[in-house]
Amino acid sequence: MLKTLLIIAVAAVGLLLAYAATRPDSFRIERSLRIEAPPERIYALIDDLHRFNLWNPFLRKDPATQGIYSGTPSGKGARYAWQSDKVGVGQMEIVDTTAASSVTMSLDFITPFEAHNMAEFTLKPDANATQVTWAMHGPVPFLSKLMQVFVSMDRMVGKDFEDGLSNLKTLAEAS
């Protein structure tokens, strides 16, 4: 009986590992929202990390987050490093911008798990408004593939992107 249970357990673990190995090697999470403001106003709230953090949903999760700004004040080379008991430790850096159109950031997470991803913000004029898309993509190492068998990255982070875009909308439309 014990031998049978052991064989079943080993087979289940083997199937789990095999299934995880078939998962994609990269991920992409994306959310969009129409904001009643010109692209230039919204761009200024993304391209300047001091202003970005006024609507950043992850900082709102832990107001006690310790942060350090470095590099240029805004645009390419602007950096923000954070440390928090609730949202972990990491750094973001603006690596590319196109005025009033897009901002690309590198995201390096140290804790609660190590990850190196990219975030992209695209702004598309839409009549008297702007369609803003926030996307994040990156590689999925095997341990993350195993974790994603049980927890979806989209479910884990998608709601935060929605909250962030809603915060950005409130701020941009009030300006």
UniProtKB/TrEMBL annotation:
Q: Which domain of life is it from?
A: Bacteria
CDD domains reported for this sequence: SRPBCC_1
Q: What is this protein called?
A: Polyketide cyclase / dehydrase and lipid transport
